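Chapter summary example: a protein plus magnesium ion.
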Amino acid sequence: MMPDHTRLRRSVLYAPASNGKALAKLPSLPCDAAIIDLEDAVAPGDKITAREGLAALFEKRPAGRELVIRINPISGEWGADDLQAALACQPDGILLPKVETPRDILEAGDILDDNDARDTLRLWAMIETPRALLNIGAIAELGRDPASRLACLVAGTNDLVKETGILATPDRRYLVPWLMQMVLAARAGGLDILDGVSNDFRDSEAFARECAEAAAMGFDGKTLIHPAQIEAANEAFSPSQEALSEARGIVAGFAAAENEDKGVIVLNGRMVERMHLHQAENLLAKAASIGK
Ligand code: COA
Ligand code: MG
């Protein structure tokens, strides 16, 4: 099940809620979405003041851009208060860390319902532990029920490396099988899926390669840690000119009077089926929302 592409999530930038300078910079940055972080990027001693930074940002919230708040685990010391602080901000989404079972999503959803949160407030889930990977099918299945609010999965690759003991290599060879499981599960549940971050934000060549690979693996976008990464992610997760002209050709091919009731046609010596037409239409719709 391909997600609808009315909402672009090519470049999704984390910014620590405790970093006033980063928050001030957000409105000027061309990322599709931002995740304001209360969790890993905020030191224990800053957790409370970080909530104040959050409130200040949303008071004069920049229009248009999707804004998501990542809270601490609800079962822990800060999570429940984070969730209330997040609710008060009316973000587009709340990102739950360390999700391990469908129950984690359902319980957070119950709290949102009890607080009369808008239906449009969605839940995002970090997939970053071995248990989450083993339960990924059941977690993603919630995407088929809009009442669950689940909209997007986010690969937490730093945590996965730490929790499993695999070696983090430049080609991510030991992570790739798990990343592909996430993509598969997301598609089964009709969810968006975002790749994990690249820590080495000064190496733009390696980053562009990682983005291209993530796009080829089927990810909708990449989570980012630094503004320098935005442009490459936007580029990699936008349809290429080549793909667009192919898509236009497919649409034109099926639109021709002689092909009106055909299920399969031949274009430039290649078989093209009606499913390719739907794929082509999706791609063109995505390009239209990018303005390409
Ligand atoms: N969001 C918005 N703005 C950011 C930013 C971010 N994630 N990271 C850096 N910037 C801003 C800086 O404030 C600085 O702004 P200025 O031009 O007004 O001075 C500019 O971009 C250049 O930043 P730079 O000096 O290169 O980086 P830094 O040393 O200030 O920050 C990090 C480096 C890694 C500490 C910072 O990028 C960061 O905190 N990233 C997010 C980490 C995070 O959220 N992790 C959790 C998920 S993995
Ligand atoms: Mg994490």
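Key point: Residues 40, 97, 126, 128, 156, 159 surround magnesium ion (ligand 2) (CB under 6 Å).
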